[in-house]
């Protein structure tokens, strides 16, 4: 019998209505089958590990990421797969972070949640949870786990976690993966796209739980005041600054902006260029407005999501020698960029 560990962090999926007060309150996931009796039909052994105090996903911190990763590391040999229940607002950040912290995965780590509480009749939480568990338990023809990476399942779609972003606050189709296709689609049956699944070259799980949050994010916009970027481009207060630029990685040629970039890099800072477009990729030097970035030593983030760029940068600062970080940021490590 395959063993799956559910890790409950908090979020909408874990809410039910108190029959006496009518207020929403957190589910005791130790009594999971009482809330979702359908789980008893699985030929699986389900165990639950919960945060002592459920956390709204807007309150998630680096310490919470480290707790989730440490639990998966601690119980890795005991379970065949892991399902992490998480609030939707920052789910892509947490899932992306774990994809870097848990390199060498040979087992599935599936994130899911819901837009409506599990105690609401029309909830999307039951289907999301049931199918996430089914995915975590799925095996290929050789008896190996079908998924061997951190993934995110939501509303019939399985995404690579570090390619996902939340795109809707009110639709059940809350997540998209604009630059990488689905890993699987849930219909009458699970439809797998096996050629898209990630496989590591590592021989064993390589857990690295350290993170460094000296990472800044600057979204460019027309008319941005000088102080908005000069205050951020201050080394060593920030060691990496991620620029969300226009289109294929373009920016204005204002001299104060270019000087601030040049001085930050010269002082030892690292600048990573990602596009603020929902889909597509940075192509530095393709247009005159991005030629300066090439000359200054700005790193192209290609088609990294903002969530992946931030968490990859935090991971790199904590775990790599400084001279290795630029190449690391611009290279695909766990399928996060094309």
What does this structure look like?
- It is built from 9 helices and 18 strands.
- It has about 350 residues and is an alpha/beta fold.
- It has 2 domains: about 210 residues, 3-Layer(aba) Sandwich (Rossmann fold), CATH 3.40.50.1170; about 120 residues, 3-Layer(aba) Sandwich (Rossmann fold), CATH 3.40.50.
- A hairpin with an 8-residue loop joins strand 10 and strand 11.
- Helix 2 packs across helix 3 and helix 3 packs parallel to helix 8.
- The protein starts with a strand and ends in a 9-residue tail after the last helix.
- The mean pLDDT is about 95.
Show the helix and strand layout.
Layout: E1 2-8, E2 15-17, E3 24-26, H1 32-35, E4 44-50, H2 62-74, E5 81-85, H3 91-101, E6 102-103, E7 109-112, H4 125-137, E8 150-154, E9 157-160, E10 165-166, E11 175-176, E12 184-186, E13 190-192, E14 206-207, E15 215-219, H5 226-230, E16 240-245, H6 255-267, E17 270-275, H7 291-296, E18 299-300, H8 306-319, H9 325-329
